[in-house]
Design brief:
mainly alpha; three-stranded antiparallel sheet; 6 helices; 64% helix; disordered N terminus
Length: 201
């Protein structure tokens, strides 16, 4: 499926026309990005029924609560491992991350970045044509978002241990940073890597 095809069809005549056409192309790209992101968000809402503060999770009416609980436990363990490599004294017990001060945070399905990865892959998949280099970029971008999420979870716990009231602040800031990173990865594709699509089919 091809959502964005203007780049290959536009003809540029002089610097003035190139600049105006480029501006239109970028505006169209931004519109497509936000439209696809919103569509992904609402399609998720239509297909998934889940507890926003727990592990209960159903997709198309099929219960995946146990699978999401296991994923949450694995996410907590992986996040602890990342922070331990950075020198932090933090451990994972099932779905709990506990710092050396005794402060704990619970990792639920919403912390696993399943929804955000779905939204990223949805936007990338339906934005412009599908090529091998684009698939490789999607995998690389997904892995970057995945590892950022592990770092995010561990840092929220570590930076909130002295002041638990700051947990909400760090949680919201890192959530914004996560979506900001998603946007930057998409923007790098549009501006830097999409031009190589015709070279790697």
């Amino acid at each position: 499926m091809c959502i964005l095809t203007k780049r290959n069809k536009m003809g540029y005549r002089g610097v003035g026309n190139w600049s105006r056409n480029r501006q239109k192309e970028l505006l169209y790209s931004f519109f497509c990005f936000w439209a696809l992101l919103l569509y992904a968000h609402f399609s998720w809402k239509m297909c998934v029924r889940a507890d926003a503060h727990g592990h209960a999770f159903a997709l198309f009416g099929v219960d995946f609560t146990l699978a999401m609980y296991k994923l949450s436990c694995n996410t907590a363990e992986w996040s602890a491992s990342v922070l331990q490599m950075l020198g932090a004294k933090i451990r994972a017990t099932d779905d709990l991350l506990t710092t050396n001060s005794g402060f704990s945070v619970r990792v639920i399905w919403a912390c696993t970045s399943v929804k955000q990865l779905y939204m990223f892959l949805f936007v990338m998949l339906f934005f412009d044509k599908i090529t091998r280099i684009k698939l490789f970029y999607m995998i690389a971008g997904g892995l970057l978002l995945f590892f950022f999420n592990l770092l995010r979870i561990g840092l929220i716990a570590e930076w909130s241990k002295q002041n638990p009231a700051a947990f909400v602040i760090w949680h919201e800031l890192f959530q914004v940073a996560y979506y900001g990173l998603l946007f930057v990865i998409w923007l790098l594709w549009v501006e830097c890597f999409s031009k190589y699509q015709n070279s790697f089919r």
